[in-house]
Amino acid sequence: QVQLVESGGGVVPPGGSLTLSCAASGFSFSSFAIHWVRQAPGKGLEWMSFISSVGSNKNYADSVRGRFTISRDNSKNTLYLQMKGLTTEDTAVYFCATGLRHGGHAFDVWGQGTLVSVSS
Amino acid sequence: QSVLTQPPSASKTPGQRVTISCSGSSSNIGTYTVSWYQQFPGTAPKLLIYSNNQRPSGVPDRFSGSKSGTSASLAISGLQSEDEADYYCATWDGSLNGSVFGTGTKVTVL
User: Fold this and answer.
1) Looking at chain B, which residue has its C-alpha nearest residue A96?
2) B80, HSE (Cβ side, Cα atoms, 13 Å)
3) What is the pLDDT of residue A11?
4) How many CB atoms lie within 10 A of CB A6?
């Protein structure tokens, strides 16, 4: 079945780095753009970044531009998010999401999320 | 902070109709279609409405969406206890070249 599974979350000290992964299955991963969305504890959803189907187009939210890098390996059906210079403000559950059936900006497939906790 | 504004909460009794507003600008809602998501605590969001007013397969027709100018709204008619959740609007923003989410509305069924 169609599925996105995030991994790589954990506890990291302020200023540290972490790389998240999102493994896709059940659909043609290389045909779709894919996004990262995060949710801080008790807060709302915040769009982080997207990458086009072949990786040629990327963009980031202002809050993470220059610190986070999105990439994908279509041969491995996997999306990545490299995070550097982490602060406590980056503590959140990170979801990957994509729009398969209703247009790229209507996210009908989400992963279960992976928790990143930035703490000393 | 989000560029799409929603009321923080809404509450009605079972069977009533509740409406949630989402206010944006010309660079987002005014130009692009709006989606709505439902989220229960500890779970991933679920797509409820896409293209302003379309329901994905499996979403009850109690849920409806509309858009006018730079605002959108989600209506839930015949409110049920299982509808108690957080709801978010979302769209693309041409100025930011990225997706934007609303601030979120917690719906409580009294």
Assistant:
1) B44
2) 6
3) 97
4) 23
